[in-house]
Amino acid sequence: MRFGVLQFPGSCDDRDAVEACGRIGESRLVWHEEPDLDGIDVVVVPGGFSYGDYLRPGAIARFAPAMEAVARHAEAGGAVLGICNGFQVLCESRLLPGALLTNESLHFVCRQVDLVVESADTAFTRECRVGDRLSIPVKHQSGRYFAPPDELDALESRGGVVLRYTPGSNPNGSVRDIAGIANERGNVVGLMPHPEHAVDALTGSEDGLRLFASAAAHAAGRETTGVSA
Amino acid sequence: MKAKVLIRPKEGILDPQGKAVERALPALGFEGVSQVRVGRLVELETDDPDALAELCEKLLANPLIEDYEIELNGGAGA
Predict the structure, then answer these.
(1) How many CB atoms are located within 10 Å of the residue A24 CB?
(2) Where are the domains of chain B?
(3) What is the CATH number of domain B2-76?
(4) Rounded to the nearest 10 degrees, how much is the dihedral formed by the CA atoms of A148, A168, A209, A128?
(5) Is-contact A119 A182, C-beta < 8 A?
(6) Is the pTM of this model over 0.90?
(7) Extents of the domains making up chain A
(8) A141-152: average pLDDT
(9) A148 in contact with chain B, both atoms CB, cutoff 8 A
(10) pLDDT digits (tens, 9 = 90+) for A43-80
């Protein structure tokens, strides 16, 4: 199982993501100018401040050659996870619906949050059950998920909300407590919390590993059946 | 040709930056200021003004959350 973690100028969680994925399978960095992802089964778009967050977080990174390869990988049914800034990049790329706005408080938030799994029907939550609670940290200033009400209703009705902050713990003012979402096929997932920082009991929680383990199971399933999930 | 693009948060979208500015004003003695919204201004020179709207849609603004206005040569444009 091969994980590829994108690296943009300004990424800062890329190495933690490589370390986290390395606990499940092989894992390497993918420089943002690499034009293809040959041999990679699972793509992680990591957190940080790609291109200095200029203009809007994620707005410039979406034009990187590696992002074109990510779009092709997603189109072919491959698993793609956007974490924090990576989530912003996937929204700006239109691989996921909606946008991430500045936190309601205007403050940078950095703390452990409890999440509820709302959908186990995605490449990154298939090893979870609906209702499971995950303890994973957030650290961001622009994490307030937003989409117009009609799009939110459509998202909810197709099971596109993957993770929600538990009642009362929403750290950023995200609409309907949304912490993570998926595309229609469930192979592209974005979330603000950082599963790559929750892979060892020594640092508080290893719940994040379940997302990477799910992706490995998803990719193994695709290899066995030869069908894009 | 010189152009200016004014980008601001769409109506109805909470703009915490505008709220923070608004809350700071009374402390400085400015009363009666409300509905503050903070956007940004992009100045540029272009050979192809007709492409500006597309440029705004694809990069300068995120149409889901922002409105934009294009001003050409100091006059109101498209």
Answers:
(1) 19
(2) 2-76
(3) 3.30.1280.10
(4) -70
(5) yes
(6) yes
(7) 2-225
(8) 96
(9) yes
(10) 999 999 999 999 999 999 999 999 999 999 999 999 99
Inter-residue contact A81 to A47 (CB < 8 Å): no
Q: What are the tokens at B33?
A: 């200021």
The gap between the terminal CA atoms of chain B, to the nearest Å, is 14
Rounded to whole angstroms, the Cα distance separating A26 from A32 reads 19
Closest listed residue to residue A56, CA positions, set B39, B14, B5: B39
Complex prediction ipTM: 0.83
Cβ neighbors of A209 (< 8 A, separation 6 or more) are A20, A23, A24, A195, A198, A199
Domain A2-225 bears CATH identifier 3.40.50.880: yes
pLDDT of the residue at A81: 98
Report the 10 Å Cβ neighbour count for A105.
14
Inter-chain CB proximity B16 and A56 less than 8 Å: no
Residues of B in Cβ contact (< 8 Å) with A55: 59-60
> Catalytic residue among A84, A92, A118, A128, which?
A84
Whether residues A148 and B14 touch (CB distance < 8 A) is answered with no
Nearest to B16 among A92, A98, A106 (CB): A106
Using CA of residue A210, residue A173, residue A81, residue A51, what is the dihedral sign? negative
H helices of chain A, in order, are 14-21, 65-75, 85-92, 149-157, 209-225
